[in-house]
Amino acid sequence: MYFQACIKRYGSMTNYQMVLDKIEQILDKGGREDQEMSAYKEDLKFINEKLLSNSMQSGFENIRYRIERPEVYDLLKKAN
């Protein structure tokens, strides 16, 4: 119950939600010409850094066996 309340209250302020918001912004733009290239690169850098952070990696390890395609995250880690 406490955990659910924390998610409801603070979920929108988590790194995970910020990453999802940045991805959605990039996809909604449709093309790079609508957005300055430097801002686009900064968003991608932010997403990459957050997904590869220690907290995100340890959280991922906790749910690895409950998600459909964990190999996508493994490929991201190998690419860096």
Summary, kept brief:
With 80 residues, this protein is an all-alpha fold. Helix content is 72%, strand content 0%.
The SSE string, one letter per element, is: HHHHH
> What amount of the residues lies in strands?
under 5%
Shape: globular
The separation of the N and C termini measures 37 Å
| Mean pLDDT over the residues | 78
Q: How much helix, percentage-wise, in residues? A: over 70%
Question: How many DSSP helices?
Answer: 5
Low-confidence stretches: none
> Biggest sheet, open or closed, and with what strands and sense?
none
Number of strands: 0
Instruction: Report the structural category.
Output: mainly alpha
Radius of gyration: 15 Å
Write up this protein.
The protein has 80 residues and is an all-alpha fold. It is 72% helix and 0% strand. The protein has helices at residues 2-10, 15-29, 37-51, 54-63, 71-79. α2 runs antiparallel to α3 (37-51). The protein is globular and about 45 Å long.
Question: Which secondary structure elements does this structure contain, and how are they paired or packed?
Answer:
Elements: H1 2-10, H2 15-29, H3 37-51, H4 54-63, H5 71-79
Helix pairs in contact: 2-3
Tags for this model:
mainly alpha; globular; 80 residues; single chain
